[in-house]
Design brief:
Layout lengths: L4 H12 L15 E3 L11 H14 L14 H14 L3 E5 L2 H11 L6 E5 L4 H9 L3 E5 L4 H8 L6 E6 L11 H10 L3 E5 L14 H5 L7 E6 L9 E5 L1 H10 L1 H4 L6 H16 L2 H19 L11 E5 L3 H13 L2 E6 L10 E5 L6 H13 L3
Parallel strand pairs: 1-10, 3-4, 3-5, 5-6, 6-7
Antiparallel strand pairs: 2-8, 7-8, 9-11, 10-11
Helix pairs in contact: 2-11, 3-11, 4-5, 6-7, 12-14
């Protein structure tokens, strides 16, 4: 029977405690949210929602076509200019998602014969980009510039290293300056996914590459998402103008995809301008993460020290992680639950995302619930 094998796969997932289900949320909920990626608390900010509404009223509900046909509006161009300037790069190109931006950057910058050196902890979108690229991929140890250097040694052709800046599972930061140095020693490019760094790290939230002093370098390309700190949807690639021009002509997820909806572009632009005006939001998100970690560890929980705004708490097993998250939800707290295959090390976790708008009382409440519901 066609697709009959799916039942067997479903049963295997059930036995392993790895079944995933959709849970539609209402517009308003009493749950304290430590599960979303709304790091700066901007998704519902009046200026951001009005930016979305104004863009929809002006440009319509959709982009109407691919970016190269009718899907590029003046609003898209304005967002690209301001993103590039804010993050310290020569140019930017907006995509319909951060996933699409990562696929574009890796596949278009790793032609046939190129070597792609990929960190073992990279996000699925970078991994898929490596799989789709026509180059050869070598996976290296997590956050290890010497492993990157060793992989590049002896390779005579084109090469690029790809890495998250802030890894989404534990929130640890890659050694960006050392990675850039290793790549330059071999004439290789560096592609960085700053999805979890933009809005949290760097001067006023300008991102992890800005904090590391490599933003704007002619051998560094950075991808960002508009769906986390900027509270909207979409993604972008930042880098030298010649790289952005190449993506316009070679990146399939740009050429063949409908452009980002105007409402999302308008919301992201409004959020970016708000962040420029209120740079303290970035520092507050990092401060909340550190406070969460300190309180969790003081309560005897095994929490990973955050480098940005992600705090993970180890769970004994996938099944217990699911139950723990469910018990937190029953107690009024929404937290993330990461299990294999989403975690490369096979260790299940509760994943907490700090938000700049969390109060001290809310932090205390979250820690209390997590402690009281621990397996």
């Amino acid at each position: 029977m066609a697709f009959g094998w799916i039942d067997e796969q479903a049963e295997l997932r059930r036995r392993a405690g790895l079944v995933r289900t959709l849970r539609p949320r209402p517009a308003a909920t009493p749950l304290l949210d430590l599960a979303s990626n709304d790091y700066l608390g901007l998704a519902r900010h009046p200026e951001v929602t009005e930016g979305a509404a104004r863009a929809a009223r002006t440009w319509g509900g959709g982009a109407t076509g691919s970016r190269l046909v009718t899907g590029t509006t003046e609003l898209h161009a304005e967002l690209e200019r301001e993103l590039a300037e804010f993050c310290g790069f020569e140019a930017a190109l907006v995509f319909s998602s951060g996933y699409a931006a990562n696929l574009a950057a890796v596949t278009a910058l790793a032609p046939h014969g190129a070597l792609v050196v990929s960190d073992a902890g990279n996000h699925a979108s970078l991994i898929d980009g490596c799989r789709l690229a026509r180059g050869m991929t070598q996976v290296v140890a997590h956050r290890d510039p010497d492993a990157v250097r060793k992989a590049l040694d002896g390779h005579e052709g084109l090469a690029v290293a790809v890495s998250d800046t802030v890894f989404s599972v534990d929130g640890d930061v890659a050694p960006l300056a050392a990675l850039a140095e290793a790549c330059r020693e071999h004439g290789a490019g560096l592609v960085l996914d700053d999805a979890h760094g933009l809005g949290v790290l760097g001067d006023g939230g300008r991102g992890a590459p800005h904090a590391a002093g490599i933003a704007g370098a002619d051998d560094v390309v950075v991808t960002v998402t508009l769906s986390k700190s900027l509270g909207s949807q979409g993604g972008a690639v930042l880098g030298p103008a010649r790289v952005i021009g190449h993506l316009v002509n070679a990146a399939r997820t740009f050429i063949f995809d409908t452009g980002l909806a105007p409402a999302a572009a308008g919301a992201a632009l409004a959020a970016l301008r708000l962040l420029r005006r209120e740079p303290g939001r970035a520092a507050r998100a990092a401060e909340v993460a550190r406070e969460l970690h300190a309180r969790l560890t003081a309560a005897g929980l095994e929490a990973v020290r955050p480098d940005a705004a992600v705090v993970s708490v180890r769970a004994p097993s996938p099944e217990q992680a699911v139950r723990w998250a469910a018990d937190c939800r029953t107690a009024g707290l929404s937290v993330g639950c990461f299990r294999p295959p989403s975690v490369p090390d096979g260790i299940s976790r509760l994943r907490l995302t700090a938000r700049a708008d969390l109060s001290g009382a809310e932090i205390e409440r979250a820690v209390r619930v997590i402690g009281e519901t621990r397996p």
